[in-house]
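WARN  no MSA supplied for this record, continuing single-sequence
INFO  ligand: copper (II) ion
INFO  echoing inputs
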Amino acid sequence: MVRFVACASLGTASPGCLAGTPLAYFLHSAGPASGPVRVLDWALAALCVGVCIVIAVLLYAAIRRKRRESASPDAAPSQTSVADERDERDERTANRIIAIGTAISAVLLLGALVGMLRVLAAVADPPSAPALAVTVTAYDWWWKVTYRTPDGASFATANEIHMPTGQPVRVDLQSADVVHAFWVPALAGKTQAIPGQTNHQWLQADQPGVWRGQCTQFCGPQHAHMAMEVVAQPPDDFAHWLDAQAKAAAPAPDGAPTRGEKLFMARCAGCHTVRGTQADGAQGPDLTHLASRRLIAAGTIANTPANRLEWVAHAQQLKPESLMPDIALTPAEASDLSAWLDTLQ
Ligand code: HEC
Ligand SMILES: [Cu+2]
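INFO  complex generated
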């Protein structure tokens, strides 16, 4: 926790500093859509700490006064007029303190309101028109990401949003089932994904890097395992990535489907699409370039060949109630399938 706050407050995005901490970047800003929000975060945090300190001082003073009063019992009857005068004075002071306190609170709260409105206005629109728009559709419990290529075609990936650095990207946010919310703290505030409507937000990353995001609207048993990553790349690298992802899966070298591919068509194609094959299921993520992704199951596990097989066999243990069933395979089938999944680069 201490390391986390220290790293985040220094504003260092160095992976070494924050690596391994889920959503470690929520106190760090990596672009202009989140910068003003972060300033507001820290200002409000400072204000709250200030209020806590004032309350602590008041409590201390009240307790001390109580102790002093009980130590010196009421004045003798002959002194009542002096005591009355003191009470009156005390009451006047108390009223003054209440008035000043109310005024200070009102000014601070109004200041916070003005600050918030200014931040909302500052992040409402990107500095320039977004060159790229991606559609992010929330599903129980993963994210479909749809891109349009410069020549007008479109294709989908899952749970990993790539974007070029230094320019705003518009996110058109939809939901396929229930209400979800999309939040990549380092890049922008959160926006809800609501069935039947499209909400918009924009992201911009000043530097190349990978930032984690998370569903932030409770959407069912696997809500906590509904993360995604935003990968910001220099524009040239991004253009290459887009080209490669737009392509269909590479066919087998001799043209004939392998045993692994056939198995996939029989057991997986009803739910998953692999472009360039007959698999065109829409219930699960597009797997055309599965092996190129960093994580699977919506940011839950590293995308290694062993983990992919583990996921196929035990999805219900790794992500109970997820809409991917456990699929029992013999060791020979598993290795055939694995060999084919490896080719989906
Ligand atoms: C009944 C539909 C269904 C079937 C059949 C199915 N899947 Fe899935 N699969 C899903 C869903 C839904 C997800 C998303 C789960 C999540 O992350 O919550 C998923 C996720 C995955 C992922 C993770 C993808 C990513 O990028 O996160 C892989 C890999 C995968 N499935 C492989 C397979 C393979 C291989 C088969 C066949 C042996 C298969 N699936 C059969 C529905 C299905
Ligand atoms: Cu959720």
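The radius of gyration is 29 Å.
INFO  checksum written, moving to next record
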